[in-house]
Design goal:
heterodimer; A: 208 residues; alpha+beta; five-stranded mixed beta sheet; two-stranded antiparallel ribbon; 5 helices; elongated; B: 201 residues; seven-stranded antiparallel beta sheet; 19% strand
Chain lengths: 208, 201
Amino acid sequence: RTPPAQALWGMADAADGPHEPQVVDTADCIKMKQVLDDEAMETILQRGGYEQSFLLENVKLSIMAVSCVFALVAQLFPMPFPQSRALLAVCSLTYFALSGVLQFITYVIDRDIIMVTVPLAGARKSEALRVRSQLARFSEWYHLILQRNADGSPEAVARMYVGRYFTAAGQFDSVGFAREVEAHLRRWESGWEGTDERGPPGPKKKKD
Amino acid sequence: APRSPPRGSPGGRAMEFVKTVVKNQWAELKQLWANPRQLIFQFLNLAMIVLSALMIWKLMVVVTNSESPVVVVLSGSMETAFQRGDILFLDNNAAPVRAGEIVVFKISGRDVPIVHRVLKVHEKANGTVELLTKGDANKVDDKGLYAPGQQWLRREDVLGRARGALRYLGMVTIILNDYPALKFVLIGLMGLFVLTSRESS
């Protein structure tokens, strides 16, 4: 029986209780980033006491829904072709325009942002927390970036070596990762900025 | 332990691979179901991918003014110009049809479009146009193909003039039409993988 990931890295204690680790295919970069992003977001929301802002996501979902409506009208409107040419032209051009807006939002505004929080009572939108992450394809370093929700505001970057949180078999040490995310969050909240590295773990301690 | 083929056999390995993929997809779908916001997003994502393909077609319909801007050659009656399986791009804008042009037309009452060359064009004083067509590889003209009692094609029967071609790429369409079950299998698989994969956005 393989021991749970925490015991291997010595990062969890008995108080955390038994925990079946999630298994991820380590060759699947997109899935790994998704798992790390989800755990980071959950940690920041729960342990940091923040609330997630769904504003941009709702805007994107609305644009998608509206463009689907235009597309469905073009596909299903019961007018035979030569007469419906004008209607089809309007619907398809609107559809592609909305699609373009959506691509703009995704690639220019959203970029690598994984979450934005709701600003605390009385604070401006630009004072909310913006969480960004990067995991380049086939890279072993996950970057977790915390900053205020304003472009150019100081960043607290954590460069995290994925081997600290995944065993070779792909078991994910969510507890250990959450702990380091929380430490990074506290550091940022106290005003720290810059880049910090969490490299490969040192030689394994002998189990006693 | 349940009996299974020996580990080394290709059949055994293929079965295990399929089982792993099915298990992973099922786990992904369950996870998606638990998170409604993510589910809606992935569903709209899939809808937009499908609708984008359909809308590109509609845009081509608008631009070429043709009901069917892209057709596949189904018979060998236009050899050696076009073979069965070639894709043709059509244009149905206002310019008059001239003898010698290759047109795609539908005979009223039949679904299947036919690709042949225009042999004769009669333009009457009141503007009506009558056309006679013939396949290059056929020995006789198309009078026998038209609807009973019909001697000439009208301009409205023509879907468009062939303006460009891609050799042989239409064979995929022909295969999917001969074995319709393949269509559902293909689309089902693609839909499943889009629903359960998460891109970096």
